[in-house]
User: Which sequence fits this backbone?
């Protein structure tokens, strides 16, 4: 990745707020003066101009900061439920990077609802943002072709459009988790999949490849497609699994919420399978059996996407659409190291 | 609170995306046609207009959605670290309410850094938002007087400006937590305070009042001001407390991160004090000793603030600045119900 985006502003640089304070007026007045002075008394306007000069402000710098609807001043970020720490971490990191370059971020949080996503994108394109970062749903995104601004997809690619994508190595992570469990002698490993997003599909592929490499068949009854990606759905499915005559001795939970549901269910079962989750979560190390996970740097996902989008928006990066894949790592804490029961 | 804000759009209503699809063009082309048609071939423009008519679109509705820099189409939200679930929950809820009224939200997440907060607010005012929701830091906010748009503070009031504030009953919650511990015979209750924000000050006041009502003096050596509001700082302080000759038999943790740090420290100590946290958190019920907390509806905090701001922006609410206080409730799970040790 190139590193051509502008430097962050120094925090000691005087701000518009300092101008307002020194002139003894409100921000709105500073704004009006800089934009021509309509509706401001001559004496007040003069005080504002003096304050601007005294503070060594470039007046056009203020004007630029104040110009409404300026095409290049905001990025849009469209993603799922912000109370999912995975999304919150992406949002936080991309805001930081955008802010360092003087860009605000307009947020659309859409709770994985395709209609909501479309409406949010439409609204944001209408707001003349300089670029879009989208954690896409499964629908067709060809409508974005010709949106007139660069688009970077985060976490998963979209259908119907060629654009940059920043994601994690889902297949590698799925393989890592499964090999870890196979290595400890597990032969009946269930995988619980949140609804068929791209990511969980790739994690399943890694699970299958690990089996194949070990010369083992996958028992398809242990590949469980959840009706939704909630802890509740995972809890119910895990209870059912563990009450089968021949339950799995290990469970690979394909997301953080799925892992939570698996662990909730296991509080009520006699047999305790090994558990590996995908994506780390707060308190994972504090649970009665600390939780082993495959994790990636989700903040880096947000940072990389924001940097790439800023470069695209500034025409500083004119390569064809890129596919940037961040690695996963295994964090062993206990739950994934239980031996198989009989 | 009045309920005069506009109805959410029906999801079956055709969108600009449907227009683009039907006309076989990109969103950018639809935008250009609606805004006058510059740079679009006549035949293409005609196809877009036909699509708009066929879909029963009000053309000025599209135009409105597309007009850049329109003053009334965005709210700004300025708050702390989004990976703190407390802030994420406020952000999610206020985005939902704003979205239902066709407003986007421009986000400034500033990690409780006063300079960062000022810069973010300046940037956002310059973007001509219809109003500001701010979780303020401790600095002076008089610079916002005359910003020309309504301001609603969330979670804590700001200094130097009269404006709406939506918050929780911090003092009542602090009292509730302390009375709960006193009621079980605890007489040495430590309180761990994140740096002196308004909220923890009020929680401390509730702690003192509960003692006074019970006719008890507060041992000031048990009132611990943390150097920062992190789990790490709370962990260190808790270790020190529990290694004193006369340790507390109960700990009141003033925030979710402080509670995490307290619980981390207690994994290493022999004596186990009762623990009550402030604000609920994911997995609180899954820990080895499920965690008792005083909690409020943080999503309701975000919703109420967004509704009030929309009403103010639409001049639908012209009352003097309001102070809306949401209640706290005690959720008992185990950690707060341990009896005092000797």
Assistant:
């Amino acid at each position: 990745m190139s590193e051509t985006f502008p430097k962050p502003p120094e925090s000691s640089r005087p701000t518009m707020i300092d101008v307002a304070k020194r002139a003894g007026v409100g921000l709105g007045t500073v704004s009006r003066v800089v934009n021509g002075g309509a509706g401001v008394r001559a004496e007040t306007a003069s005080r504002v101009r003096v304050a601007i000069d005294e503070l060594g402000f470039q007046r056009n710098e203020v004007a630029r900061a104040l110009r409404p609807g300026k095409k290049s001043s905001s990025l849009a970020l469209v993603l799922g439920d912000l109370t999912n720490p995975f999304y919150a971490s992406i949002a936080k990191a991309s805001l930081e990077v955008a802010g360092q370059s003087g860009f605000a971020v307009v947020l659309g949080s859409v709770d994985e609802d395709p209609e909501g996503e479309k409406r949010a994108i439409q609204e944001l394109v209408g707001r003349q943002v300089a670029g879009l970062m989208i954690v896409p749903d499964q629908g067709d995104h060809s409508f974005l072709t010709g949106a007139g601004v660069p688009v970077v997809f985060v976490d998963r690619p979209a259908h119907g459009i060629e654009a940059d994508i920043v994601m994690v190595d889902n297949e590698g992570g799925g393989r890592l988790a499964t090999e870890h469990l196979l290595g400890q002698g597990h032969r009946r490993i269930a995988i619980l999949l949140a609804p068929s997003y791209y990511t969980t599909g790739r994690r399943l592929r890694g699970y299958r490849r690990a089996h194949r490499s070990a010369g083992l068949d996958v028992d398809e009854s242990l590949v469980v497609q959840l009706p939704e990606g909630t802890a509740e759905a995972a809890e119910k499915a895990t209870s059912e699994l563990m009450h089968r005559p021949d339950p799995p001795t290990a469970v690979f939970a394909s997301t953080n919420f799925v892992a939570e549901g698996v662990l909730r269910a296991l509080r009520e079962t006699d047999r305790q399978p090994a558990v590996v989750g995908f994506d780390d979560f707060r308190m994972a190390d504090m649970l009665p059996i600390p939780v082993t996970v495959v994790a990636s740097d989700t903040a880096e996902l947000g940072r990389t996407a924001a940097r790439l989008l800023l470069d695209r928006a500034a025409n500083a990066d004119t390569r064809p659409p890129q596919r940037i894949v961040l690695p996963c790592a295994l964090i062993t804490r206990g739950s994934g190291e239980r031996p198989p029961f009989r």
Q: What stands out?
A: Confidence is low (pLDDT under 50) at residues 1-12, 58-72 of chain B. The longest strand of chain B covers residues 74-79.
